[in-house]
């Protein structure tokens, strides 16, 4: 209990004093996760839309596989990305291991199935409503997907926020491919793991409070920007 | 407009020119958890201009990273593995830098009464005999290997419900031991720097068998063209210098010296 209270105190102290290291690792956490999220959305949202609109024989199989990939263990993703990016691996020449880019790659793999799956769930329902209208307007397949993505944007926000949540709190994969290097690849979650290892629970909890605060801020900000739950805006 | 662009370009390029060269070193958890890394790395950057990026893993993984050419040097503590590593051509040579020692940490009440042990092996035998809970690193690290060597010396095959390998770093193993009132083998530096010591104490220390030598191994640039052999050599020169001796020997945790510089001038 003492450690929890000390942790809250530590969190306050870190934030109020604008601790330089805290700001650095917080910004790095945001940069890595938002980059990964942008890529994951660029792949996952159109994929979710396509799976809602496009009927093909293996559709059910593809959707079931995508849903299963949500449970991909981050540690395994980390290990596979490590082996690919290692100097001795097939992509070693790129020299990406132990850089933020490697962390972004791992996070994209982890969250793309989640983003695509939630997007698909939301757009499938919307498609049921729009189906007759779009067919009667003789819209092409791409126009149908684009319409769903635009009109379903608020539901897609949920998909993006779920992806953000999974990525910002992830530690197993980015520890392996990033290396938790001070000043280069250390982010909030790996810093928490480090301080826990040192037995400095107060600082670890303090960083945890900052991390949770960050997730809340991002969620609030995005809902405010998208003007959800307001009268007259669907 | 062109002038502005040129000024911008200069402003963007200059900081990178003045920026220190970076190299990567894989080091053991004890090097970082003890806090020594935080003391040495900034000094290294000031003296040599090299920014050392530290990848902190167990000795086993550190050597794997070196073998793959993912780091430029490793700083570890498990002599037989280091010699095999050099033998296999992964590193050019092995250079001893400093040592500290292992201690047996356990509950203050000392249920297996290891405090009066004649030797480290005797202490381990007493723990096995009473089947007092023992947390093992179980992660192929230098500390884990030292522990296995001690069990071997005690003639004990550590098995059963009392023996709990956690497969984690030193700090996590200490946390686990503290939580379950178990014994654990730790390096002194990590223990002294450990924030969660409540109810735990050093129950046995001082046997020369628990001597813990750290060595520096520059990864062989011939095996991996991407390895920065020149920076690794510069770092080695610094690590064996008088400056390093002063910093390492004067590093104190709670008033105790924890690392002892013992590098030889000549290779």
Quick rundown:
The complex is a heterodimer of chains A (234) and B (267). Chain A has 234 residues and is mostly helical.
What does the model show?
- The complex is a heterodimer of chains A (234) and B (267).
- Chain A has 234 residues and is mainly α.
- Helices cover 76% and strands 0% of the residues of chain A.
- Chain A starts with a helix and ends in an 8-residue tail after the last helix.
- By secondary structure, chain B is α/β, with parallel strands linked by helices.
- Chain B is built from eleven helices and twelve strands.
- Chain B is globular.
- About 3% of the residues of chain B have low confidence.
Note the total helix count of chain A: 10
How far apart, in Å, are the first and last alpha carbons of chain A? 45 Å
Number of domains of chain B: 2
The helix/strand class of chain B is alpha/beta
Radius of gyration of chain B: 21 Å
Could you say what the CATH architecture of the largest domain in chain B is?
3-Layer(aba) Sandwich
Tags for this model:
heterodimer, A: mainly alpha, B: 267 residues, alpha/beta, D-Maltodextrin-Binding Protein, domain 2, 2 domains, two-stranded antiparallel ribbon, 11 helices, 42% helix, globular
Could you outline the blueprint of secondary structure elements for this entry?
The complex is a heterodimer of chains A (234) and B (267).
Chain A: H1 2-16, H2 20-53, H3 59-69, H4 74-85, H5 100-136, H6 141-151, H7 153-168, H8 172-178, H9 188-197, H10 201-226
Helix pairs in contact in A: 1-10, 2-5, 2-6, 2-7, 3-5, 4-5, 4-8, 5-7, 5-8, 7-10, 9-10
Chain B: H1 2-18, E1 21-27, H2 29-33, H3 36-48, E2 50-56, H4 59-68, E3 73-76, H5 79-87, E4 95-107, H6 120-130, E5 134-136, H7 142-154, E6 163-165, H8 170-180, E7 183-187, H9 188-192, E8 200-204, E9 211-218, H10 229-239, H11 242-249, E10 252-253, E11 256-257, E12 260-261
Parallel strand pairs in B: 1-2, 1-3, 5-6, 5-7
Antiparallel strand pairs in B: 3-9, 4-7, 4-8, 4-9, 4-12, 10-11
């Amino acid at each position: 209990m003492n450690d929890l209270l000390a942790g809250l105190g530590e969190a306050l102290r870190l934030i109020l004093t604008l601790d330089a290291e805290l700001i650095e690792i917080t910004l790095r956490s945001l940069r890595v996760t938002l980059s990964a999220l942008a890529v994951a959305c660029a792949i996952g949202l159109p994929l979710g839309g396509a799976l809602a609109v496009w009927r093909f024989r293996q559709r059910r199989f593809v959707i079931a596989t995508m849903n299963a990939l949500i449970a991909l263990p981050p540690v395994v993703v980390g290990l596979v990305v490590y082996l690919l990016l290692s100097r001795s691996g097939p992509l070693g020449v790129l020299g990406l291991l132990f850089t933020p880019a490697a962390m972004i790659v791992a996070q994209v793999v982890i969250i793309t199935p989640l983003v695509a799956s939630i997007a698909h769930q939301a757009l499938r329902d919307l498609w049921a409503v729009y189906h007759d209208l779009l067919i009667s307007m003789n819209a092409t397949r791409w126009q149908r997907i684009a319409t769903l993505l635009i009109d379903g944007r608020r539901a897609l926000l949920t998909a993006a926020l779920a992806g953000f949540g999974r990525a910002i709190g992830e530690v197993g994969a980015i520890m392996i491919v990033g290396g938790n290097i001070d000043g280069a690849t250390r982010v909030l979650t790996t810093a928490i793991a480090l301080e826990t290892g040192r037995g400095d629970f107060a600082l670890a909890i303090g960083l945890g409070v900052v991390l949770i605060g960050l997730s809340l801020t991002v969620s609030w900000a995005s809902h405010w920007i998208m003007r959800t739950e307001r009268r007259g805006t669907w | 407009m062109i002038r502005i662009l040129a000024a911008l370009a200069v402003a963007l390029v200059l900081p990178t020119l003045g920026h220190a060269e970076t190299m990567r070193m894989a080091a053991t958890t004890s090097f970082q958890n003890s806090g020594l890394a935080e003391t040495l790395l900034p000094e290294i950057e000031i003296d040599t201009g090299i920014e050392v990026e530290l990848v902190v893993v167990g000795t086993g993984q550190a050597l794997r990273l070196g073998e793959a050419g993912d780091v430029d040097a490793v700083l570890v503590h498990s002599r037989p593995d280091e010699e095999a590593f050099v033998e296999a051509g992964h590193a050019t040579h092995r250079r001893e830098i400093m040592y500290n020692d292992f201690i047996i940490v356990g509950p203050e009440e000392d249920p297996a009464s290891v405090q009066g042990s004649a030797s480290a092996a005797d202490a381990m035998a007493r723990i096995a005999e009473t089947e007092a809970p023992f947390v093992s690193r179980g992660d192929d690290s230098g500390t884990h290997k030292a522990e296995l060597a001690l069990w071997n010396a005690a003639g004990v095959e550590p098995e059963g419900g009392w023996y709990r390998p956690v497969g984690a770093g030193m700090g996590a193993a200490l946390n686990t031991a503290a939580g379950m009132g178990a014994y654990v083998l730790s390096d002194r530096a990590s223990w002294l720097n450990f924030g969660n010591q409540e109810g735990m104490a050093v129950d046995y220390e001082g046997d020369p068998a628990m001597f813990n030598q750290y060595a520096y191994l520059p990864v062989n640039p011939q095996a991996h063209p991407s390895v920065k052999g020149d920076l690794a050599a510069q770092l080695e020169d610094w690590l064996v210098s008088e400056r390093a001796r002063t910093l390492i020997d004067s590093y104190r945790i709670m008033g105790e010296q924890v690392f002892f510089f013992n590098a030889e001038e000549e290779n």
